[in-house]
Design goal:
three-stranded antiparallel β-sheet; 18 helices
Length: 418
């Protein structure tokens, strides 16, 4: 009998949490995670304090888990990791099976984060940060050089917030959820405000706005920002998300896992890509036409930022959703026209569609934000998705993210170097 197989049980009896955990080969906390995600149903025991579970349902889940190996595999030469969070399919993507663009159109980024973490919607929820965590994170961020980028600040704020949390090593679902609900607003609060009258209250998008631009927010622009945060929360196993899962596989706490993701996010091919698109849009607006700007980019051997996505043969659904909302923002009209000109001009050379980086650049240019603002939006949003992957990875076998190297160097024995 293996560690993940238990003695047969009578199919009609109810199992205690401990018995269900033993049959599934997981911790009791994971049993409740299965319940919250709809994989198991539970019933309160009238004569006791805990929940009980249907033996047949638990046995079926155990069989399914054995058929689906928890370890990673290689499909078509690429790393493949089992996940129930995001599906990308035919120019659309889904959070737990629900169309992500529809979720973002109807719910705030906080509500979508809760949906990804727990499988439950909590209408009207807002995240608040403890004063102690915010004070420590702000002091750490304020000590950085003035030229520090947004990801530098967020990474330092994450580490500082971790030092203020004595429970960070508690990897239970409830503890990690508590961390998530305070870490994200702490990261936002740690960034320097750009408006003197800015107040840290209300939805996350409003609090973040005052740290991205000195302009007063209008309802349409806030809606675009909140929708962008919701759309960007997760996108399957992007490079930064894989780094987060590797850290979680080694049972690093949530702050450390998020820090790992922020380290990868800083690359120009990932979180910083919207900044390149922002500068390109400014060039188009300055020149009055996309044609000379595109010509200069191609002459220099550079790819056109904001166009094309390896997972979407057609238009990025995130870009499509944001462009629709940006049409309602009066100040966005020039930047939106420049983006459409850019797409149309490039289409003569190669049939590439707009991606979310270009749509995000329209928002940042139209709102008087710096080029790095898109990177900040991306990082704050993706932190919520990383927490979902951390929770999922903690349910898997520890250290499963340990691939074997394929050595291609000189064959031993070699002489000692002189």
């Amino acid at each position: 009998m293996t560690d993940h197989e238990a003695a047969p049980t009578h199919p009609d009896r109810r199992l205690s949490t401990k018995e269900a955990a033993e049959l599934l080969g997981v911790k009791p906390e994971t049993v409740y995670a299965y319940v919250s995600r709809g994989q198991l149903s539970s019933r309160r025991d009238p004569g006791g304090r805990g929940s009980t579970f249907d033996a047949k349902e638990v046995a079926a889940l155990a069989r399914r888990n054995r058929r689906e190996p928890s370890g990673s595999s290689h499909i078509g030469g690429e790393l493949s990791v089992r996940t129930r969070i995001t599906l990308i399919d035919k120019d659309r993507y889904y959070f737990r099976g629900v169309d992500a663009t529809e979720l973002a159109a109807r719910h705030s980024c906080e509500e979508i984060a809760e949906w990804l973490w727990t499988g439950r919607l909590r209408p009207g929820i807002t995240f608040t940060a403890p004063d102690t965590s915010v004070a420590i994170a702000r002091r750490a961020v304020d000590a950085l050089p003035e030229h520090s980028g947004p990801t530098d600040r967020l990474r330092v704020a994450t580490i500082a917030a971790a030092t203020a949390d004595p429970l960070r090593f508690d990897l239970s679902q409830d503890a990690v959820l508590g961390t998530a609900r305070t870490l994200i607003p702490t990261l936002v609060a740690a960034l320097p405000p750009l408006r003197r009258d800015h107040r840290d209250e209300g939805p996350l998008a409003r609090r973040l706005w005052g740290r991205l631009t000195g302009r007063a927010p209008d309802a349409a622009s806030l809606r675009v920002l909140d929708t962008a945060l919701g759309l960007l929360i997760d996108h399957d196993l992007a490079a930064s998300t894989l780094a987060v899962r590797v850290a979680a596989s080694a049972r690093a706490h949530a702050y450390a896992a998020v820090s790992a993701g922020l380290g990868v996010l800083e690359g120009p091919l990932h979180g910083a890509a919207s900044g390149l698109a922002h500068r390109l849009l400014l060039d188009v607006l300055d020149q009055g036409s996309a044609a000379p700007v595109v010509a200069d980019e191609l002459r220099s051997g550079r790819r056109i930022p904001g166009l094309g996505h390896r997972l979407y043969p057609g238009e990025d659904p995130r870009a499509r959703a944001l462009f629709t909302l940006l049409e309602e923002v009066p100040d966005a009209a020039p930047a939106l026209a420049a983006a459409h000109d850019l797409v149309a001009t490039t289409a003569r050379h190669t049939p590439l569609h707009a991606n979310v980086d270009l749509a995000l650049a329209v928002l940042t240019v139209a709102s008087g934000m710096p080029a790095s603002a898109g990177e900040t939006v991306f990082a704050v949003a993706r932190t919520a998705g990383w927490i979902a992957h951390v929770l999922e990875e903690y349910e898997e076998r520890p250290l499963r993210m340990r691939p074997s190297g394929r050595y291609v160097g000189a064959r031993p024995p070699q002489p000692l170097p002189r």
